[in-house]
Amino acid sequence: MINDPLKTFVTVVEHKNFSHAAEELYLSHPNVSLQIQTLEEELGTKLVDSSSNHLELTQAGEIYYKYAKQILRLHNKALQEIKQLSNVVTGTLKVGASYTIGEYILPFAVAEFAAQYPKVDIETSIANTEEIIQAVRTNQLDVALVEGEVDHSDILIHSIMEDEIILVVPNQHALARLPIATSEHLQDQVWILRESGSGTRAFSDKLIKEWGINVRKAYIFGSSQAVKQAVSTGLGIALVSRWIVRKELNAKELKSLRIKGKRLTRSFYLIQPKNHETSEVTEAFTEQLLNHELITSWRKLGKRNIDN
Q1: What is the pLDDT along the chain (308 residues), one digit of tens a residue?
Q2: For residue 117, which of 89, 142, 77, 85 has the smallest C-alpha distance?
Q3: Do residues 9 and 25 touch, judged by C-beta distance below 8 A?
Q4: CA distance 77 to 99
Q5: Are 171 and 252 in contact (CB under 8 A)?
Q6: Closest C-alpha among 63, 252, 269, 236 to residue 158
Q7: Is the pTM of this model over 0.70?
Q8: Across the chain, which distance is largest between two alpha carbons, in Å?
Q9: Rounded CA separation 32/22 (Å)
């Protein structure tokens, strides 16, 4: 197995936090700190500066991180190719996802997995978070990706990345002229919401209740695509994942606003049945997914958006 401190270092850098890295790696905070210290002693230089509120890389750390990522990626690729020589993975993979992840992450993950394991039959299901969780609990799915809270003792839960929720408004809306919105600005507005059972809907409902916002009127849509289209046409405003409106924001088809004094984040989770034997196919998909370049790059981008 590749040197554990190397993977620990990369994970710490991508989370910019020792505690979050420890949680992902299933290690203690002192163990993570010790591994970074061991690396620094071996290299004879400081790699990270954790003296301020935010962990920062030193110049040496920037260089080491760049090559550490390459080493880990090549190591994983070598393992997969060697494994294929002696043991061709076959079988069926049933994978599900809630809409945000299913529309914007799952296709890339499945395409790469199918190219690596062409003899595996893949069945995908996309539904809202509540429906996907229930499918995992009843063993209808081997593995799934969801946004929103997951609180079931019969499910294995692994946080894979942080997601930023932003307020989007039509370009012609009065709020679009504001540099930043307050909760008072959101009173008596028309809202575009997802259907009940959606992780995004649960997040929106919770915040609207916490902020004491009076909703003048609400329109309910069954997909993220429909929500952003409704906002684009001027029907109302919405809280959505930044990932689903990246193209629209770049094209200036929508306006995004930060909420004063509010940092809106949630986790994307990988979930599996707890009392169900994990197949070789599922293990291969899970391992490849967690190391997928799209996931790791979005982790870094999401972290940067959240920190800023």
Answers
A1: 445 888 899 988 888 888 888 888 888 888 999 999 999 999 999 999 877 667 889 999 999 999 998 898 888 778 767 766 666 778 899 999 998 889 888 898 899 899 888 889 999 999 999 999 999 999 899 999 998 778 888 899 988 888 889 999 999 999 999 988 998 999 999 999 999 988 899 999 999 999 999 999 999 999 888 999 999 999 999 999 988 898 899 999 999 998 888 778 888 899 999 877 788 889 889 888 877 665 655 555 444 444 44
A2: 89
A3: no
A4: 29
A5: yes
A6: 269
A7: no
A8: 64
A9: 6
Place of tokens 């019969």: 154
Which has the closest alpha carbon to 168: 218, 64, 260, 240? 240
Cβ–Cβ under 8 Å, residues 192 and 237: yes
HSE-up (13 A, CA, CB side) for residue 96: 26
Instruction: Give the domains, in start order, of the chain with CATH numbers.
Output: 4-85 (1.10.10.10), 89-161+266-307 (3.40.190.10), 163-265 (3.40.190.10)
**Strand ranges (DSSP E) for the chain?**
48-49, 56-57, 91-98, 120-127, 143-147, 155-169, 189-194, 215-221, 238-241, 255-257, 265-273
Show the tokens assigned to 230: 């409704």
Q: Are 14 and 296 in contact (CB under 8 A)?
A: yes
Q: How far apart are CA 270 and CA 36, in angstroms?
A: 27
**Who's near 132: CB < 8 A, 6+ residues apart?**
96, 97, 98, 125, 141, 144, 146, 271
Q: Can you tell me which residue has the tokens 């409106």?
A: 245
3-state secondary structure of 148: coil
Closest residue by Cα to residue 218 from 186, 188, 191: 191
Burial 61-85 (b: 16+ CB within 10 A, else e): beebbeebbeebeebeeeebeeeee
